[in-house]
Every structure is written in C-alpha cells, then in structure tokens.
Amino acid sequence: MGRVMAIDYGTKRTGIAVTDSNRIIATPLETVASHELLKFLQTYTQKEVVDEFVVGMPKTLSNEDSEIAPLVRKFVENLKKTFPDKTVHLADERFTSSMALQTMIDGGMKKKDRQVKGNVDKISATIILQAFMDTIKR
C-alpha cells in the first residue's frame, strides 16, 4: 500500500505531509517553493510509493471559494495531468493555519521557530492529512 500525501498549496510556499506506508501516521514532510512543487513531487514519487494526494481547498467562512482557490484548482489540474494514475482528493482547509499555530504553541515550539512560515505550512498539511485519514476510518 502506498502513502497518502497532503498538499497545502500557497502562492509562494507549499506545505507537504505524508502518511507512513501503512497509512497510520500523518507526518510533516517539507515546505517547497510553489513554483518547484511538481518537480519535487515527481522526484519524491520516484523514491516512495504515493497512491493518493489530498489538496487543501481554501474556503471562506461562508463556504465560498477564497481568492486563492482558482490558483489551487489550476494546480490540481496540473497535478492530475502529471500523475494521471493517482487519485486527487480536495479537502476543506479552513482554520488549518490557526490550528497549526496553536499546535506549535501547545507542543512547546519556541517563538522564533513558530515565526518560520514554512513550519506553519507543513503542520497545516499534516492537519489536512490527518482530518482526511480520520474521515476514511469512519
């Protein structure tokens, strides 16, 4: 069984998280410059088996697409073209950044490390992935 990978796409940076090969644990993987993301994913999937992608879809509080949503949809199109054999799921990513920040505080991460925006992106991707995995288990 291959891994599931979550992607928290941003205009500058993208947070990535993956499951273990047994799909039990979601772990932060990396923060990648968004313009290099597809190349990173191609390299990673040559080394590790990834069966599915979960992409965070930014929504507003009224469940409408946010202003970055069209960019995320365009990325999803490119992802599907690049990996036609992989399933791509969309997941609501509302509140993941604030949840990630709170997780870092609760985990005792130093303020200096919390200010590294890439850390928030990776943890946000992990929250998206864990929520997706919890939904599947039900």
TrEMBL record:
Biological processes annotated in GO: rRNA 5'-end processing
Protein name: Putative pre-16S rRNA nuclease
Alphabetical list of InterPro entries matching this protein: RNaseH-like_sf (IPR012337), YqgF (IPR005227), YqgF/RNaseH-like_dom (IPR006641), YqgF/RNaseH-like_dom_sf (IPR037027)
SMART domains attached to this UniProt entry: YqgFc
Entries under NCBIfam families matching the protein: RNAse_H_YqgF (TIGR00250)
UniProt GO MF annotations: hydrolase activity, acting on ester bonds; nuclease activity
Keyword terms of this UniProt record: Cytoplasm, Hydrolase, Nuclease, Ribosome biogenesis
Top enzyme category: hydrolase
EC id: 3.1.-.-
GO CC term (a single one): cytosol
Organism lineage string: Bacteria, Pseudomonadati, Bacteroidota, Cytophagia, Cytophagales
Domain YqgF/RNase H-like span(s) in chain numbering: 2-100
Keyword Hydrolase in record: yes
Pfam families per record: RuvX
Principal location: cytoplasm
Family, per entry: Belongs to the YqgF HJR family.
Purpose of the protein: Could be a nuclease involved in processing of the 5'-end of pre-16S rRNA.
Localization per Swiss-Prot or TrEMBL: Cytoplasm
